[in-house]
Amino acid sequence: MCVPYLSALGTGMKVVSGVLGQVSSISQTVSESNYRTQVAINNAESAKNEALRQRQLGIEEARQEKISGLQEANKLAARNAASGLDISGQTSSLGYYDVLNNANSNAQSIQDSYNLKSESYMEQANSYLESAKINQKNTKNYLLNYALTGLGEAGMAASSWYKNNEGGIFPQ
User: Fold this and answer.
1) CA–CA gap between residue 14 and residue 164 (Å, rounded)
2) What number of other Cβ atoms are within 10 A of residue 119's Cβ?
3) Residue 62 half-sphere exposure, CB side, CA atoms within 13 Å?
4) The model's pTM
């Protein structure tokens, strides 16, 4: 009769459709993982670029502060000279160097502030990269566990089919 063949065919179709569904699920999981990993890498690159930009802004603003301080110190020296003060005297020199030191101190504070922002962005970039690594590791573990589970289920299905068909390839 044809009934055993139809039964085996039905069982085979169920197995194939189950396998195809699982393959689709695996494919979707891997695609999603790859997407998340790429997003994390892109975010890390953006954070790194912003860190470098912040560092450069700090250098430029500190430079402007030093230039401004030098201009103010020179204006002070010019005013003192115009007033008839000895510009090489101690009072004029101290005032001149006070203005320069204040500008240098402000410049250092500005640069330190931008460096702190830059370090924060670099930490953020490292966090994104760590997230990408963890995501890849979890996906690999998922695939490994799924493969091991799938092998076990395939072995059980083969054993069951073999028992149902009394050891023969085709039922009699």
Assistant:
1) 16
2) 13
3) 18
4) 0.66
